[in-house]
Amino acid sequence: MPRPKRIILVRHGESEGNTQEILYTQIPDWKIALNPRGLRQAWDAGTKIKEIVKEEPVYVYHSPYQRAVQTCRQLIQALDYEQIQGLREEPRIAEQQFGNLQNLNTIRQNKHERSKFGRFFYRFPNGEAGLDVYIRVSGFIGTLRRDHLQEGSNVIIITHGLALRLFLMRWFQWSVEQFEATHNPPNCGIAVMERLPEDGRYRLTQETLDMIGAENAPKTSVIGRSFLGKAYVDTFMAY
């Protein structure tokens, strides 16, 4: 089965909501657009990705949220039209659901509670827990592995901070504690997974590990294995 040379995940650019929280009370989250700085960030991200993939073919998946769609449009302008082999909107990599139009005081209280409870299991009223996003991202990974991608191609996934980290958690089999120790990348932060030629597994670049604070999490993929090895058993039993 053909496997991509790289999987590149990108958080969307800075949005109007990132700088004006009041907008979340007036506009559906999925319709909030990039601000001018976010548009520039997306263009710069495309330039950086072009330097990585050069002339190699790419397949692009993006969240349906407006800020991710705009990031995608800006980003792919830095690529050659001929190298874009496919482009798809993918709802399963959308932002965590916070419960429709937001009340600022309520959402701030919810986020304060989440900081104590943990991002993975805390569920927003009428919204999602990190676990819910993990489940739908896991389904997307299954689709990604079944898609007929060209050997030696690159996959670009334009998504959101939490969904990006949960994608990595699922792929690299991080524990909940290892996930909780990470943090979101900056707007238009780029996470790069490179396929190892010797065994076909994927490894996160050091820049990616530093960007999200994942120094203590596994950086080489173990997806597809039924169980982890004895080293993990020994660590688990030591608690």
From TrEMBL:
PANTHER family: BROAD-RANGE ACID PHOSPHATASE DET1
Domain of life: Eukaryota
Active site (record annotation): 12, 95
A Pfam family reported for this protein in Swiss-Prot or TrEMBL: His_Phos_1
InterPro entries in the cross-refs: His_Pase_superF_clade-1, His_PPase_superfam, PG/BPGM_mutase_AS, PGM-Related
Cleavable signal peptide: none
Binding sites annotated in the UniProt record for substrate: 11-18, 67
GO molecular function: catalytic activity
Gene3D superfamilies: Phosphoglycerate mutase-like (3.40.50.1240)
The protein's name in its UniProt record: Phosphoglycerate mutase
